Amino acid sequence: MDIEKIFHMKGGHDDTSYSKNSTLQKKASEMVKQITMETIQEVYLTTSPQNLAVADLGCSTGSNSLSIIKELYNAVINAYNKAQNNGPKSPPPQLCVYLNDLPTNDFNSIFKALPEFYQNNICKEVDDGNRVNGSDQQGYIRPSVFVAACPGSFYAPVFPPNFLHFVYSSYSLHWLSKVPNGIYDENGESMNKGCIYICKESPASIIQAYVQQFQDDFSRFLRLRSQELKNGGRMVLVLLGRENTNHIDRGNSFLWQLLAQSFRILVSKGLIPEEKLNSYDVHFYAPSKEEMQEEVRKEGSFKMVRFEMFEIERDENYGDNYGVDVARTVRAIQESMISHHFGEDILDDLFDTYAKLIDEEMSMQDIRPVTFVLVLNKV
User: Fold this and answer.
1) Are 141 and 92 in contact (CB under 8 A)?
2) CATH number belonging to domain 3-378
3) Most buried residue among 137, 150, 198, 207 by CB atoms closer than 10 A?
4) Where are any strands of DSSP class E within the chain?
């Protein structure tokens, strides 16, 4: 299965789109907002570029893609204003934001929303009698914020050498470049039958295959970004992980186990053939803190200056709809892969079943996915 040609968040703005079902990701972004903004301010103050080049790797689509631009812009301008009070005057910096994701991403929705976004969040209103060059017909001036798309896998080169000052990536690096080759036998059949990720029944070889793929991918990611970042460049990486060395936990792993159980229920109902389930595996890996630290150390291009782990607390406003909301979020992320492998007809039944299983489990004990945030400085 060619991940780059198939995998994408659900585009558009309907009820099952990523745009309508990414509140958990937005909440995580808000939780690490202070870390992200402090880091880009440090980059600006230590490098003082006139053109600050920023990449959002795995930007996806929807409002989250644009809200981070607003926050980064405000952070840089605040740092600029403070610097003006303590030194010689200089023109404000230009912020160049490069949105990166796979070519299958719905970039169109992002760019269609840009005019309104600029006007409501970035542009400054001016009086008709005081217009200056660059103001538009409505009497607005757009500060120097430029947005462009750079489609392609971030496990390959995306930018020229020494091009970027700051890299941000939220909820993307737990996606591997491919399903690990090591999960297949000599006949090309998965040895992880009945599971779609690492589960209790998975043999040790499955775990090792996923670990090896993560090590290869993350090391490659670090090496490529070190080439693309300027001296003094930094990264803020937000991704799903696990709390300890045990790959089977009641967090991200457990949510995959429940999705696999949902598939098995559909198999028992005759809605999908068992061989279809046995040949489906996800390109996902939730690393531990120790695994990430070791790969950063081995690759050697970055110094880890901050590492924090947190859990997104369940919003009590969800009430009885928590399972539905989580299922919609997972559907918006996985629909492209599932519909390609199984067909679209099973989607409603699958995620209705998934939502019920989540609620049943949550009534007994919380499912607590772990999120990491890393700050890395280029050395």
Assistant:
1) no
2) 3.40.50.150
3) 198
4) 51-57, 94-100, 124-125, 140-141, 145-149, 164-170, 229-241, 302-311, 370-378
